[in-house]
């Protein structure tokens, strides 16, 4: 196939950041996605409805002229989150709350320690119909970084899902066969997002021939057997898996650093790269479900009514993008060839 037209997709997990950065990140996503679930790990984090509304206003103001892109806002859970915060968030149109185990990733220091203490909050989310989005990694320092997702499943994820059978739970950016199997064996109220980097790469792409800081994200890339398991699950067309880029910009100097930040800024190439993966797998017919239907259906939102066409045409991702404040950022797949292009 040389061309494919799909319903306009949505990105069910990304990081826009704030301030000047919005002038770069919002147009990059709005070029092809109609909606996006916006992660709340700002400094300070988006912990209540008021902050979410203000942040939404700044995102809307950064849209390109004529764009109808819609940000979907989320709340950052902490040990101080109250059931009233959940009620207020629902009333303000917030659609989900994000559980970061404290210390798991970028700007998560103020997040949740002692996940069980949040069960009353999960109970209220279940009642209000707010989704629970989970960064599924344990953070204990003795646990090997490559095992952190797998161990989170038994220690926390399975228990949460069992305790709240009506709560919609998204296992975000899954990276292992264990996570894929867990979702497949769960009821329809459990789903997962998958990033382009975890479908395209494995830990060799991070570590062989020198450390590749621009392929460093969290959860970290795993061994190739896990990459193959994720490719298999998207190829199956299961409704429990959908597109979430986890596009997460960091300035070049913060990535190319003795202590480099985690995150791949994929907004400029993600949809094209997903298309490339589905093409490689011989399942382009499954792309629309993954990119445009499964997420909206799971969130209980209408599917988009417009279309988007991709053509099989090679292009090269730029080596660098300049931020509105003059800083450089290296996009995911910089300098590499992508086989598909938005028409
Ligand atoms: O690689 C990542 N970057 N993983 C996350 O969970 C957070 C994100 C970020 O905010 O930079
Ligand atoms: Zn993320």
Automatic annotation (TrEMBL):
Zn(2+) 2 binds at residues 98, 135, 173. Keywords: Hydrolase, Metal-binding, Pyrimidine biosynthesis, Zinc. Zn(2+) 1 binds at residues 13, 15, 98, 246. Residues 11-309 form the Amidohydrolase-related domain. The modification N6-carboxylysine is found at residue 98. The keyword Transferase does not apply. GO terms for biological process: 'de novo' pyrimidine nucleobase biosynthetic process; 'de novo' UMP biosynthetic process. It comes from the Bacteria. Its EC number is 3.5.2.3. Substrate binds at residues 15-17, 41, 135, 218, 250, 262. GO terms for molecular function: dihydroorotase activity; zinc ion binding. Pathway: Pyrimidine metabolism; UMP biosynthesis via de novo pathway; (S)-dihydroorotate from bicarbonate: step 3/3. It catalyses: (S)-dihydroorotate + H2O = N-carbamoyl-L-aspartate + H(+). One of its GO terms (cellular component) is cytosol. The active site is at residue 246. Coiled coil: none annotated. Its cofactor is Zn(2+). PROSITE patterns: DIHYDROOROTASE_1, DIHYDROOROTASE_2. Binds 2 Zn(2+) ions per subunit. NCBIfam families: pyrC_dimer. HAMAP family: PyrC_classII. Belongs to the metallo-dependent hydrolases superfamily. DHOase family. Class II DHOase subfamily. Catalyzes the reversible cyclization of carbamoyl aspartate to dihydroorotate. Homodimer. This is Dihydroorotase. It comes from Paraglaciecola arctica BSs20135.
